[in-house]
Design brief:
Blueprint (H helix, E strand, L loop, with lengths): L1 H50 L3 H13 L3 E11 L6 E13 L5 E4 L1 H4 L4 E5 L5 E10 L4 E6 L10 E2 L10 E6 L7 E15 L5 E8 L11 E3 L4 E9 L10 E5 H14 L5 E2 L3 E2 L2 H6 L5 E5 L5 H5 L5 E2 L5 E2 L3 E5 L2 E2 L3 H8 L7 E8 L2 E8 L1 E2 L2
Parallel strand pairs: 7-12
Antiparallel strand pairs: 1-2, 1-4, 2-3, 3-6, 4-5, 5-6, 8-9, 8-11, 9-10, 10-13, 11-12, 12-13, 14-23, 15-16, 16-19, 17-18, 19-20, 19-21, 21-22
Length: 374
């Protein structure tokens, strides 16, 4: 009987040991499986994070990363006399955006960003700042070109697109420095095409792009890009009772930029074609109830005189009488000086146009070669 008890105790002890061993194995397997499950869950979570970015979001990020180094922050300062100390101080007058045009350091911005500045500075995306000089400006298109002496390695020019290929509804991206906040991106669509806005000198800018991408003070002069990161316009104005973003912004089309900027770089101004005559202001034409542009004076010996144009005449009693009134350039109807200038801008110096006139109530037309305006 004693032997039987000893055997029973040994069996029980062996069972306990075996149970502990099996429990340890099971715990280890469960721990490994648990880790596997956790790892799998973590992997799935990581994969989920990777695919949360939609293709359109990835495109926006890629465009920003590619274009942001081309966008600059422009500070405009003016000199002001302190009437207490009689010292001349440099006062910040405003700020805006711009973008690098070429590897020579030319920067494009809006004219109104740099207007009346005594000194200008340009900050690049890496934070480095350079003094800037004005190369040329075109107020009638609200465009200006600056130049900075920066290492070429720091200069990343934008890629210019074409504005005639734009369609309403396509995605656009604006990058700028609203309220002094650098490298800010907003996204929207082309809301409308062919808009007209007035420039600083009251001239009409045609074929303007309307967008709902948020454009606020400080965005002026920055680039409007398409989904390929190509420049399609220069952000220039907003419609807002408060002066802040209200859903309607405008950009000067890139085709206008392509036409104006190279001339500003080469000549410091835009080479404009003209009729070679002086014209009377629109206010005088309105008072005389004349619809068209009144020719004021035709220089002696000019091509305009040789073509037969006549200006205002004064008879022996000192009384004035109208000469020619321009009503058309080719087929474009002309009712004021703004329309005349815009019609002529469609041509180059040396081109010949048909000028339709009204003289003494009778219509006539002449062919005239356009000359360079001074």
């Amino acid at each position: 009987m004693g032997n039987s008890k000893r055997v029973l105790v040994l069996v029980l002890a062996a069972g306990v040991v075996l149970g502990l061993v099996l429990a340890g194995v099971l715990l280890r397997e469960g721990h490994v499986k648990g880790r596997s499950r956790i790892t799998t869950a973590s992997t799935s979570s990581a994969n989920a994070d990777e695919v949360t970015l939609l293709p359109d979001e990835k495109n926006t990020i890629a465009v920003f990363q590619e274009a942001a180094p081309s966008v600059v922050f422009i500070t405009n300062s003016a000199l002001q006399l302190d009437y207490f100390s009689m010292d001349v101080m440099e006062i910040p007058q405003g700020s805006g955006s711009g973008f690098i045009w070429d590897s020579k350091g030319h920067v494009v911005t809006n004219y109104h960003v740099i207007a009346n500045a005594n000194s200008l500075s340009v900050a690049l995306s890496d934070g480095s700042t350079f003094p800037a000089t004005v190369v040329g400006a075109e107020p009638s298109k609200d465009l200006a070109v600056l130049k900075i002496q920066a290492p070429e390695s720091k200069l990343k020019p934008v890629t210019a697109g074409r504005s005639e290929r734009l369609v309403v509804g396509q995605k656009v991206i604006a990058i700028g420095n609203p309220f002094g906040l650098d490298q800010t991106l907003t996204v929207g669509v082309v809301s409308a095409l062919g808009r007209q806005i007035q420039s600083a000198n009251r001239r009409t800018i045609h074929d303007v792009i309307q967008t709902d991408a948020a454009i606020n003070p400080g965005n002026s002069g920055g680039p409007l890009l398409d989904s390929q990161g190509r420049l399609i316009g220069v952000n220039t104005a907003i419609v807002s009772p408060s002066g802040a973003y209200a859903g309607i912004g405008f950009a000067v089309p890139v085709n206008t930029v392509r036409q104006i900027v190279p001339q500003l770089i080469q000549y410091g101004k835009v080479i404009r074609p003209g009729l070679g005559v002086t014209v009377v202001s629109d206010s005088v034409a309105r008072r005389l109830d004349v619809e068209g542009v009144i020719i004021g004076e035709v220089p002696e010996g000019s091509e305009a005189q040789q073509a037969g144009l006549q200006g205002i005449n004064r008879n022996w009693r000192g009384e004035l009488s109208l000469g020619d009134v321009v009503t058309h350039i080719n087929e474009d109807r002309i009712t004021n000086t703004d329309e005349l200038a815009n019609a002529l801008e469609q041509h180059k110096v040396g081109d010949t146009v048909t000028v339709k006139l009204l003289r003494d109530g009778k219509e006539s037309s002449i062919r005239l070669r356009l000359v360079q305006l001074n």
